[in-house]
Amino acid sequence: MSSQLNNGISGTSAGAAGATAAVLGQMAHAQGSDRIRVGMLGCGGRGNGAIRNCLEADPGVQIIALADLFESQVKRTRDGLMAGEQTKDRVKINDDHLYWGFDCHEKLAKCEADLLLMATTPAFRGRQLMAAIKAGKHVFTEKPVATDVAGCKEVMEAAALAKEKNLAIVAGTQRRHQTSYVETMQRVHDGAIGELVGGQCYWFGGGIWFNGVPEGSPMSEIEWQVRNWYHFAWLSGDQICEQHIHNIDVMNWCFNGPPARFTAVGGRGWRSFNQEQIKTAKDVCRHFNNGSEDNWEKYNGDIWDHIYAEFEYPNGARCLSFSGHSPGTGRNGEKIVGTKGTSNCSGSITGENAWSFPGRGIDPMVQEHKDLIASIRSGQPLNEGQRVAESTLTAIAARIAAYTGRTFTWKWLMSTSKQELVPRDIKSGPGLFHPIATGRDELV
Amino acid sequence: MIKRREWTRRELLRSSAVAAGSLMMSGAAGPLAFAAGSDTIRVGVIGCGGRGSEAAKNCSESSPGVKIVALADAFGDRLQGLKKSFGVPDDRCFVGLDAYKQVLALPDVNLVILATPPGFRPVHLAAAIQAGKNVFMEKPVCVCPAGYKVVVEASEQALQKKLAIVCGTQRRHQAIYVETMKRIHDGAIGDIVSAQCYWNMGALWVNQRKPGQGDVDWQIRNWLYFTWLSGDHIVEQHVHNIDVVNWAFQDAQPETIHGLGGRQWRTGPEYGNIFDHFGVEFIYPNDVRTISMCRQIDRTTDNVSERIVGTKGVCRPDQGLIQGEHAWSYKSPGQEVDPYVQEHTDLIKSIRDGKPLNEGKRIADSTLCAVMGRESAYSRQQFKRAWFLTRCTLDLVPPADLKLSDAKPVPAFAVPGVYQLAGWTPEERAPKAKGKGKKKGA
Q1: Beta carbons within 8 Å of A22's beta carbon, 6+ residues apart
Q2: Do both B253 and B164 map to the same domain?
Q3: A3: pLDDT strictly greater than 70
Q4: Which of A57, A204, B227, B432 could form a disulfide linkage to A331, CB 3.0–4.6 angstroms apart?
Q5: What is the pLDDT of residue B320?
């Protein structure tokens, strides 16, 4: 264990380099000057945000490696970091620490970074996380952490391994690190609103980008898909998984675990009629098919635009999950209902024990990195892997319930479901297209 | 969607008055307005399809002294069954879209069963009350806010005229529900803090279009699948469960509505323009939020039920079960009375006792909930009930001169995000929820 941790954190002084885990935990990292070498996997919008959040969280953070499917993304990210006043002195990325391609996560795991930040498309998180934990890295992972049942199970395994190896896994479900939430949830768990009997959570947004093929790009069809990952359920998990997981995670937090049973309805309406998106999809179709528009629909994505789900928690409480996209609408938040009151989970409790959060807001997206790094330094690494895998699987379960029209239990999902959407061996080449779910797909 | 506004509410009532103009009955009704002072309930059936025929049988079984004496249907073939069963003479069987007027014009008819497709209900109800008839009407009772207002106004007139209106939301007459609801209202589960209701089931019958069949003719024969006729399945079926939740709230109405829905599996042209699933959140006073879910897709998980959650317990009215501080379960008296018969028993007793039941407003409100859920799902807009009642201009009431031979292309199904909610203006947009959290990937 200590040898892995030696590889994990390196102090600035030569003497610290050989320190044991225990010593590392207690000693000079507290000074805040100790270096934490960070490698970044996934250099898209969120990845670039996460790097900056991490740099802001701790002065000891140094970015030493970047990886992405696309060479252009890696280089652009490095250039951006090198050019930024706030970031340029804290980035030291040699050319041989830039990785791209479908196996970039494996190369990244072999470098000397202590901490890896993961912000690639969620489909590959399980294998990436496993490779990182096996290589002895601490991990910050964006949510969600999978798009299918098999992926969630792989994350759960990686989380168990991380526990064995005393490695940290913190997930980008930042509400868990937001004081207004943390303090409210403490009260909810202490019984401020009585027994929990219901709840609601929402993420309804206006829409999402749709990426075409950049002019002159040599990317293959599947690379374009990954570039446009949000629109394919096997890559993003659908919107309920990709976005709404935040709110679902809060519901699970309220109940200290995932639901026992799932029922849902949903569909795809507007996305199939969005003229701007259709135009781009046709462009992409022509690009990959010698100018032909035959079967352009598959390039228009397969995700739905609304899912209305009910979660039944082990104590019998039934909660609403309400998610989707369409123009001109917006709804985001949570509510938990108890026998003695209600709460918005984020600073307000009504009823017998009415309360409101007196504190000031902090940036939870920085706080999650602070908590992560503090936990590494204290030698008591946070491990949120199992929890975020459960919340991811909760969202995936709702999606499956909606896609199939079937009600099923968590137990069934964990013991029997065979769902695996993401191929083990992904190579540059043709895309992987699935038909749009019908509402009574087969339950796998 | 094609909108026609040939009928305003006032016009409808005026036209009903014309239809009933030759009658002596209007205004002179009341408990003893039975034909020639006899105690016989003489029933005219308007809409003799499956449900109308069943209702007629239920009605005639429900009480002594009930006779089915007149029939009306848009289609001659549809009323043959009842004609034979009850020996209704030819000159009392009327066919066509105007046939209801002929039944209402018969002075000896003192109760009518309204069981045509729901789109016609507001017109028929207004005409029936105008004509001084007691009414049993099937649910739902309207498909749009314009129709709702007609039903509410007719119900008020019925009150004044002491005419009964009972509606085919039979759970309100089913002992297990009645006994359970009494307890909820007496506080057995404390204050209601949440509720869920469902009608998740397979598909229903379809009448395929025949070669040469006219638009209106086919759509009425296949009425389930056209919003202007059925209100969509959330209105046509799920209104039962929504009505139970309203009942639990002692008929308090939701203040805010936000729905989702779509047409995902059942997409063929024979399914007209309705959706195959809805999920709606109804927010009742004191911010009590409820789940309403309905689906018509074959080979999916069935669930038709309601569940009411209180501060002191949980109730399943469909199972007659209360859990919690005041646990209780319904004990059947042995032989359960068919609620489809009981509703007629209650109706006729109320007429004979001179204390006519009037469920018109109540079922109009529950129907309106379903209509609001549908319109919210069609448009993806969240809105207030108050807005819907005062500002929504949607009017699907069929024109007075509608003919079976009329051309009426099937309206396009709603594409959420594209469908325009009638009367909605951008400044009326419901306030956006506070934006929390980061916009990841957005």
Answers
A1: A379
A2: no
A3: no
A4: A204
A5: 97
**pLDDT score of B337:** 87
Q: For the domain that residue A7 is a member of, what is the CATH number?
A: 3.40.50.720
Residue B241 and residue B123 in one domain: no
Q: Do A175 and B380 touch (CB under 8 A)?
A: no
Q: What is the mean pLDDT of residues A152-169?
A: 98
Instruction: Tell me which of B300, B334, B368 is where a domain ends.
Output: B334
Chain A partners within 8 Å of B295 (Cβ): 265, 405, 439
The reply to whether A51 falls in a domain is yes
Alpha-helix residue ranges (DSSP H) falling in B105-144: 121-130
Judge if B185 and B232 occupy the same domain.
yes
Chain B closest CA to A26's CA: distance in Å?
Answer: 34
pLDDT of residue A319: 98
Structural domain for B90, as ranges: 9-171+341-360
Spatial separation of the C-alpha atoms in residues A176 and B80, rounded to whole Å = 68
- A residues 361-390 lying closer than 8 A (beta carbon) to B: 365
- Number of C-beta neighbours around residue B250 at 10 A: 10
Q: Are residues B114 and B233 in the same domain?
A: no
Q: Residue A132: inside a domain, yes or no?
A: yes
Q: What is the C-alpha separation between B402 and B404, in angstroms, rounded?
A: 7
Give the one of A46, A335, A405 whose C-beta lies nearest to B441's C-beta: A46
pLDDT at residue B2, rounded to an integer: 34
> What does the pLDDT read at residue A34?
85
The nearest CA of chain B is from the CA of A55 a distance in Å of 18
pLDDT surpasses 80 at A32 = no
Looking at the fold, whether B281 and B323 belong to one and the same domain comes out as yes
Contacts (Cβ under 8 Å, ≥6 apart) of B319: B176, B305, B329, B330
Residue B417 located in a structural domain: no
Q: Using the predicted structure, report yes or no on whether residue B389 has a pLDDT greater than 70.
A: yes
pLDDT at B17: 41
Q: Are residues B22 and B92 in the same domain?
A: yes
Q: Rounded to 5 degrees, what angle do the CA atoms A187, A191, A193 make?
A: 85
Separation of first and last alpha carbons in chain B: 32
b/e for A22-32, b at 16 or more Cβ within 10 A? eebbeebbeee
User: Is the residue at B419 inside a domain?
Assistant: no
- Count of alpha carbons within 13 Å of B112, Cβ hemisphere only? 32
Q: What is the percentage of chain A residues whose pLDDT exceeds 90?
A: 87
* Count of pairs with CB atoms under 8 A, one residue in A, one in B: 173
- Coil, strand or helix: which one is A441? coil
Token digits for B377? 């799902």
pLDDT at A16 over 70: no
Residues B348 and B322 in one domain: no
Q: Is the model more confident about A45 or about B441?
A: A45
Structural domain span for residue A38: 2-174+366-384
Instruction: Specify the number of domains making up chain B.
Output: 2
Q: Do B140 and B62 have their domain in common?
A: yes
Q: Which two tokens stand for residue A415?
A: 């013991």
pLDDT for B428 equals 62
Which residues are CB-neighbours of B167 under 8 A, at least 6 positions away?
Answer: B136, B137, B138, B139, B141, B343, B359, B360, B362, B363
Residue B24 belongs to domain with CATH number = 3.40.50.720
**Nearest by Cα to A130 from A99, A107, A104, A109:** A109
Judge whether A354 lies within some domain.
no
The enclosing H or E element of A429 equals: none
Tokens 């303090």, residue?
Answer: A183
* Number of structural domains found in chain A: 1
Q: Which amino acid is at B71?
A: L
Find out whether B106 and B44 touch, Cβ atoms under 8 Å.
Answer: yes
Q: Output the CA angle A135-A140-A146, nearest 5 degrees.
A: 90
Q: Give residue A330's pLDDT.
A: 86
pLDDT, mean of residues B130-148:
98
Q: Which residue of A has its CA nearest to B192?
A: A339
d(CA A67, CA A52): 16
pLDDT of residue B335: 84
Q: Among residues of chain B, what percentage have pLDDT more than 70?
A: 88
